[in-house]
Amino acid sequence: MKKLFLIFFLSFSTMIQLEAKVLNAVYSIRYGIFGELGICKAHLETKGNTYVIEVSAETTGVVRRLSKNRREKYVSRGHIVKGMFISDSLDMVRSYSNKVGINHYRIDHQKKKVIKTSIRKRGGKVYQNESRVLPFYAKDDLLTLYFNLPNRINLEKAGEYAFPTVGAEKQNGQVKILIPEKKEKKRYEKSLGRGNFHYLTAIVYQKLFQSSQGELMIALGKEGVAEKAVLKDLILYGDLVAKRVK
What we know:
By secondary structure, the protein is mainly beta. The protein has one domain. The protein has helices spanning about 5-10, 60-65, 145-150, 185-190, and strands at about 20-30, 35-45, 50-60, 70-80, 85-95, 100-110, 115-120, 125-135, 160-165, 175-180, 200-205, 215-220, 225-235, 240-245.
């Protein structure tokens, strides 16, 4: 279950209007015969020229027991410049059983560098605490990228795009976004349903749930919030589906 929650914040949103001071969304995650694996709650709040984005996820039912009550939380904090979210820090916290892992990213825009601090705890005691400078710099993190996409690309124009992104070092600091050609629309409708949607695909770290393609297909609704996301072609049991329920 280590990589399950990556899809939660990938499917949260890409086109939220800054006039909305607070936005909340809830997703249910289902996987084949296993049914619901977990839920995700996402929260965006802006105040003046600052923002906070929080995404928390937890397993449910049998999966909660099997995963030792796995929980994850991601928090991005930063400032807003000309309608763009500029990340100053990103926190990624994972916990299960008596173990806690924390990755804190601090973005120094003046020196154009990113410092990552990794902290590991067991039974409340710290057994690892180390920092390093990452080999790339980015203004976006894994959460802000999707809010900023409409200002970076034309969601109506087919193409492949790559963005430097804090938190994506296992992808060499790059997140790829694919906007499909019109001829591919039927394939997206088959997986995500028909509607007044913008369709796109995010290329996710290949080892995620042993997906053969790492292909996360997303349908964006009229509010700019992802209504449904599907991680395609998982080994053994098919697709992993995230659907907005609130």
